Amino acid sequence: MLLKYLKQLNAYNEKVINYNYCLNNIYWDMETETAFPPKAVEKTSQVIEFLSKEITNLLVSKDTIEMIDYLTENNKSLTPIQKRQVILLNRAYNRASKIPVDLQTKYEGLKIKAQSVWVEAKEKNDYSLFAPYFKELIFYNKKFIKLLEPKVHPYDILLEQGEFGMTVEKLDKFFDVLKKELIPFAKATIEKLESINTDFLFKSIPLERQKAFSNYLARYIGFDLNKGLIKESEHPFCMGIEPNNVRFTTHYYGNNFISSIYSVLHEAGHGIYEQNQDSELEGTMLQGGASMGVHESQSRTFENLFGRNYYFLKGLYPNLQEIFPEIKEVSVEAFYKGVNKPENSLIRIEADELTYSLHIMLRYEIEKMIFEDKIEVDELPKIWNSKMKEYFGLDVPNDSKGILQDVHWAGGMFGYFPSYSLGNAYANQIIEEMKKEIKLDEFLEKGEFGPINYWLREKIHRKGMLLDPDDLIKSICKEELNPYLYINYLKEKFRKIIEMNTDVSN
Amino acid sequence: MLLKYLKQLNAYNEKVINYNYCLNNIYWDMETETAFPPKAVEKTSQVIEFLSKEITNLLVSKDTIEMIDYLTENNKSLTPIQKRQVILLNRAYNRASKIPVDLQTKYEGLKIKAQSVWVEAKEKNDYSLFAPYFKELIFYNKKFIKLLEPKVHPYDILLEQGEFGMTVEKLDKFFDVLKKELIPFAKATIEKLESINTDFLFKSIPLERQKAFSNYLARYIGFDLNKGLIKESEHPFCMGIEPNNVRFTTHYYGNNFISSIYSVLHEAGHGIYEQNQDSELEGTMLQGGASMGVHESQSRTFENLFGRNYYFLKGLYPNLQEIFPEIKEVSVEAFYKGVNKPENSLIRIEADELTYSLHIMLRYEIEKMIFEDKIEVDELPKIWNSKMKEYFGLDVPNDSKGILQDVHWAGGMFGYFPSYSLGNAYANQIIEEMKKEIKLDEFLEKGEFGPINYWLREKIHRKGMLLDPDDLIKSICKEELNPYLYINYLKEKFRKIIEMNTDVSN
Q1: Which residues of chain A have a CB within 8 Å of the CB of B35?
Q2: Residues of B in contact with A245 (CB under 8 A)
């Protein structure tokens, strides 16, 4: 019997993995084919719907339920990898079985419509266009929450999707620390570093040279181009079709060459995670990231903890100057300060390392109010704008640069934003541990990513989805999420930059 | 009962259409992603194999057989579209049920290996590397033929796959005429037109301007970019994922700008066929071409009968000269003669309109000898070279420019080549009919493709796979395949060019 069900598990995995391969391939095609035919969208959506339904139907089928039940009852005979698969299958089944297929299908349709309306609303700077869809999206999500688990805090159910084990209780504590510590520190630091010159970052640089540098940079930090590729799209993203087929995009600007450099570092961070899965996980559905937050910790590590590290830049600088002679006269110190200059800004995706999590905090507070029934959709722009004033001292000129700026809510992604801040915090906790074991700054300066990526692979990447995020972080750091390491890192880093900036001014 | 099975037919179609969408998407990705990761090939092949097997398993399943049987017996209650689907399902089932899955799977693996060996053999110019795989490919095909229908001429079974109803008997007659009429005529014509100047065709022209012209040209002849796109690849090809998602590629050369122009005309010809399917065929598996030969007739029509037509070029010429000022001093007459200059050449894909079918004849004769067991694989280069001498008067310098030049045999495509010549012949028969009803040259000169494409859509494109090629050609031309119209067209066209060339020389 055991053998029969294990065979069935393999067949189940094969089917779902292959369907997911197709889905990813279709998404990649839609997002990156520069001239995707407009009229092709309809049939493509039908194929996506068909494959998604096939996956759900397979999950909730009698055969699969029998298999899950048997393997759950007899889990003592299973290997750790098999056990973990059964746990995740149970979670997926519980979710899928509680939401009627019709409701889910309607919701998927709503999301597609809402996203196109959001595009229009943002373009026309008209929140009232989007508001009715926003209301309906929230309505559906509240319905799902009730169907799934009416007893816990509704926001916990949203968090569970991307960050299993995360709760409002933990997040409140996390953001309370950020609010208390980060807001005053950021304010003071921004003032002190106002004098940093960044003009040289906006020199005109031909795209061809920028493109050539992307491949070099990705390889430099350990992204394997035999197992992946780099392309262009409006908004950079990373997609791990499977560990040998990991793709990411970047976007080039003629007058902002570091934009693509930091996109490459960020997305390649995601990509290296996806590429370095343990081969023992092949053929299972455990390949991928432990959670959205842990995935983001890896992209943030490469983007900020490595990419905005002084020693990393010092090591890379000769090559950077060779490819970009436009910065030949700029010292590495000036460059380092330039790419680290903090600023109050309206737009999350343009925010710097110091202020980024404050943008997330604002969104978290708003989402919580929504799902605690404490606010109406029509009031949201007012709330948004008042919080922007409070945290950044900025007036929001219009809703396109305010509440309409992100696509997430239009895509039904509620409870997703916190993973960005968790990523920042996890990244710092993890790197503190790494520093105890290897001489990080030395390797970064030498551009030796072998030992760095080996460490990350052993501790995180190769484990795929074997552990829940909490357990993974504890296995590395001996403690759970701890915002203080993140805060202390920022304080220490920017204290040094202030010092550096004062020295030079003298 | 009928309703039940018709419902089942719809579900069957939906599944297979969606799987084919995924397969096409994957092929497109592999062929056109310029940096497709080498290590991603393995899993991608597995997904292709998985989907292909799912399609076959569905076709030969008990449920499907029951459905086919019921609908075949009760076909009087069916609409013409439903009837046709049942006929084609029967054909597909007969084929699939006679070849054991294991044998087919091994063969698919062999083809992949053989193609990579062929690449190496061609690069190294070493036929002996490829010969063992060539033998095995032939061995498998002979086995399949015996399993499928041991009673007819073995080559007929090969023809059936791409050109239902075509036989060695018919093809022999066709090529006999070509051999008798075309070889002497081509020889004499090539000599007479040797003086045509083509230097201006090889001027250096920046790729950017060539690329811009592709979109213009495709739209000019009626390819709808809302329902398709154009990209680049090493070897141009066209893929109809569905009528609203038709894609083709071209290849740009800095010193040969008409290469891409004629690729675009050719592939857009395939593409226009795919885009103009009747909406009544939606959701059925009848969307596509009536046969390989009929499909090729459309690409050849746009490439040669339109694209190398004097009036078409005259109409296009002002725009052509504006985008390519490099030919500002070249008269349209000189340009027309240049793109029509015939030559004896070693390579099929570089062959001109006059000599193209002779290259096919040579391959047809060799394929027939193979499947009539009249020749050994090791003797093939010698035979190839002697035929090249006989038909073109050329010495083959090496096998890479001889028997190893085409990928078809390495990909198991035996019996495929004739469709290229059939395409040429069908094209001429069809256009003769069109000329009786519309003033083709006038429309070509004005660049008015509306009436031209309307005629083609009504007579051919919208019918998809509703008719077998023979019946389709008969429905348009009131007769079957007739090589004389093709021969006469070539004689007439090149007689005029000789006249034109003499006038100018005087």
Answers
A1: 225, 229-230
A2: 37, 39-40, 43-44
ipTM surpasses 0.90? yes
Per cent of chain A over pLDDT 70 is: 99
Which structure tokens are listed for B406?
């085409």
Please tell me what DSSP assigns to residue A213: H
CB contact under 8 A, B244 and A26: no
| CB-based contacts of A436, cutoff 8 Å, min separation 6 | none
Provide the CA B32 distance to its chain's centre, in angstroms: 19
Is residue A489 a contact partner of residue A428, using CB atoms and an 8 Å limit? yes
Q: Please report which residue ranges of B242-355 form alpha helices under DSSP H.
A: 257-275, 292-300, 310-323, 332-340
What is the token pair recorded at A82? 């098999």
pLDDT in tens, A273-311: 999 999 999 999 999 999 999 999 999 999 999 999 999
DSSP B303: I
pTM greater than 0.80: yes
Minimum mean pLDDT range among A58-62, B115-119, B199-203, B464-468 = B115-119
Q: Which of A21, A37, A242 sits opposite B227 (nearest CB)?
A: A37
**Sign of the dihedral through C-alpha A485, A488, A494, A497:** negative
Residue B237's nearest CA partner among B245, B228, B247 is B247
pLDDT at residue A505 is higher than 90: no
A-chain CB neighbours of B225 within 8 Å are 35, 37
Residue A24 distance to chain B (closest CA, Å): 10
Minimum Cα–Cα distance from B226: chain A residue: A37
CA distance B20 to A303: 40
Contact at CB, B50 and A14, closer than 8 angstroms:
yes
Interatomic CA distance for residues B167 and B169, integer angstroms: 5
Total Cβ atoms within 10 A of residue A289: 24
Q: How far apart are CA B420 and CA B406, in angstroms?
A: 13
Residues 6+ apart with CB under 8 A from A475: A459, A467
Size of interface A-B (CB pairs under 8 A): 94
Best of B245, B249, B277, B281 to substitute, by most chain A Cβ atoms within 10 angstroms, is: B245
Contact B225 A39 (CB under 8 A): no
Facing residue for A229 by CB, picked from B15, B35, B246: B35
Q: What would you report as the CA-atom Rg of chain B, rounded to the nearest whole angstrom? A: 23
Cβ neighbours of residue B28 closer than 8 Å, sequence gap 6 or more: A29, B239, B241, B247
Minimum distance, in Å, between the CA of residue B48 and any CA atom of chain A: 9
Buried b (16+ CB within 10 A) or exposed e, B319-353: ebbebbeebeebebbbbbbbbbbbbbbbebeebbb
Please determine, for residue B248, whether its predicted confidence score (pLDDT) is greater than 50. Answer: yes
Residues A364 and A171: beta-carbon distance below 8 Å: yes
Confidence at residue B504, expressed as pLDDT on a 0 to 100 scale = 58
Residue B28 to residue B24: CA distance in whole angstroms? 6
Q: Which spans in B200-283 are helix H?
A: 207-220, 257-275
Q: pLDDT tens across B71-120, in order?
A: 999 999 999 999 999 999 999 999 999 999 889 889 988 998 899 899 99
Q: What are phi and psi of B138, to 5 degrees?
A: -65, -40
Residue partners of A151: CB distance under 8 A and separation at least 6: none
Determine whether B163 is an active site residue: no
pLDDT at position A506 is 46
User: Under 8 Å CB-to-CB from A227, ≥6 apart: which residues?
Assistant: A243, A244, A245, A246, A275, B37, B39, B40
Nearest C-alpha neighbor of A238 from the set A282, A206, A271, A216: A271
Q: Is A240 left (phi over 0), alpha (psi -120 to 50) or beta?
A: beta
- Among the partner residues B26, B39, B44, nearest to A226 by beta-carbon distance: B39
